[in-house]
Amino acid sequence: MATVDDIFNLLTAVNSTTLGRIESEIKAMNQTTLGRIESEILNIQSLLNAINQTTLGRMEGEINAINQTTLGRIEGEIKDIQAHVG
Q: What is the DSSP-derived secondary structure letter of residue 57?
C-alpha cells in the first residue's frame, strides 16, 4: 500500500511534469505571437515610410510651385517699381 509520502512524491512529480509542459507550450506560443507582431510592425513601418516619402514629395512640389509663383510676383513688382522710378 502506498504511503502518504509516496502519494506526495507522485503528485509532486506529476505537477512538475505538467508545469514543464505548460511552460513549454506558453513559450512556443509567445515566440509565435511575438514573431507575428514583429512582422506586422515591420509592415506598418514600411507603409509609414512610403506614406512619408509620398507626402514629402508632394509637399516639396507644392512648396516649389508656391515659391515660383511668389518669386514671379515679386519680380513683376520690382519691374513695375523700376519702370516708375527709372
A: H
**Nearest 10 degrees: Cα torsion 2, 8, 13, 17:** 120
Instruction: Please say whether the dihedral angle defined by the alpha carbons of residues 6, 7, 12 and 14, taken in this order, is positive or negative.
Output: positive
C-alpha cell at 14: 506529476
Q: What is the pLDDT of residues 14-63, one digit of tens each?
A: 999 999 999 999 999 999 999 999 999 999 999 999 999 999 999 999 99
Residue entry with cell 514629402: 56
Residues 6+ apart with CB under 8 A from 2: 10
Report the C-alpha gap between 56 and 42 in whole angstroms: 21
Sequence spans of domains, the chain:
1-86
